[in-house]
Amino acid sequence: MTEAIHAADAERLAIAARLRQAMLPAEGAPTFAPDEVMALMRLALEASAQGHLETAERLLIGALGSAPSHPKLLLALAHLRELQGRLSESLALLGLVELLEPEQLSHGLTLVMTCLRAGQREAALTLLEVLRERCERRAPGGEIHQRIQALVALQRDA
To answer: Rounded to two decimals, what is the model's pTM?
Structure first.
């Protein structure tokens, strides 16, 4: 399994590089400076927390026009999609974030938890195994590794 996971990780990095290139902002799209993008995201999070999901959506999509591969924006939109009951879109966005930043193990863990909430246990178990392997290579014994091991044990017992 380890060799297959290493090969899959290398392929994911190559795909992520091509994806970042493909996700450059479209010509003519409004452009925002990085601090403006973050301000739009903060406003969207506030709107979402207040139950104004449509406003939050417009703000996030507007910000994504300038920074379409910005992981925090994609994570915020994924969370919003889950609040809207659009789990398949949330999963797709989380998968994209995980693809763009595979070194951020917390993204994979978020994807696992959303898969479980969406009733996609097999997908969650497969991703958990991939994450466990990555943790053992990159951050053995760390907090994320401990959380992943605990999840693996819980899912084994379920």
So the answer is: 0.80
pLDDT band at 85 (very low <50, low <70, confident <90, very high): very high
Q: Which of 6, 11, 10, 13 is nearest to 130 (CA)?
A: 6
Residue 63 lies in a domain: no
How many domains, in total, are found in the chain? 1
Among 133, 121, 143, CA closest to 12: 133
CA atoms of 129 and 104, how far apart (whole Å): 15
- CATH label of the domain that carries residue 148: 1.25.40.10
Residue (of 69, 94, 62) closest to 81 by Cα position: 94
Q: Convert the pLDDT of each residue in 6-20 to its tens digit.
A: 666 667 667 666 666
Contacts of 32 (CB under 8 A, 6+ apart): 40, 62, 63, 66, 67
Contact 76, 84 (CB under 8 A): no
Q: Which residues contact 140 (CB under 8 A, 6 or more apart)?
A: none
Residue 46, domain member (yes or no): no
Confidence of residue 22 (pLDDT cuts 50, 70, 90): low
